Amino acid sequence: MNSPETSEATHEPTQQQAQDLDRVSRFTVLTVNTHKGFTALNRRFILPELREAVRSVSADVVFLQEVHGTHEHHPQRYSNWPSMPQYEFLADSLWPQFAYGRNAVYPAGDHGNALLSKFQIIRHDNLDVSISGHENRGMLHSVLRLPGDGPQVHAICVHLGLREGHRVEQLKLLCQRLSELPPDAPVIVAGDFNDWRGKASELLEPCGLREVFAEQWGKPARSFPARLPILRLDRIYVRNLKAHHPKVLNVRPWSHLSDHAPLSVEIEL
Fold it and tell me: Which pTM value belongs to this model?
């Protein structure tokens, strides 16, 4: 008679068992304002160091704000300026999927939001939420397919305006976009909300969004300035998802790599 171990080894897993093995039920999210690859006050170009720090978190999905697509003059000024867009440089070999939403275009180049993902990006689009005559702002909406037969996950990377009136209008546009999604669709909205007056959550709660730090700690995280965070500018909101272990990355090396402290959280489907 075969031993139990040998008997089990002779059976191929069913299709359902194979899908269960492949299914992802938890993954880690990171959001960081890259400050275009410069330290606070633009004193030093540190994108290579930032890439190593981002890699160390081993996040599955990375939300980036203030990332350069192109810049005509910086390659001549900085010897370590990458030969590719900053989001591709940051993605490297760890995040095979990435999307970029160009928000600001000027004679020398452009910058915007980006998403890096270990999961397939099925589609993406950049929602223009700029207020006419003022700052160029956008929301990068990506749809992710995780391994297995689970639901598609909507990931929206945002960078809101500096004026409260502009942010209110931009949050209304975000809620409008959310209203177009299936009510049970998993959603993550993360980025730099510039919400120093703490009004965003009140406006987003009717849209079904919950802020992960407020849910755990009672308030959003302090994230700005990175070396001594006082203002609660950056957020991670979720809908139809569970959030675990939210963290503020405000110690070295992070405190010297941007003017914003990155935020991370573990997401459960």
Answer: 0.89
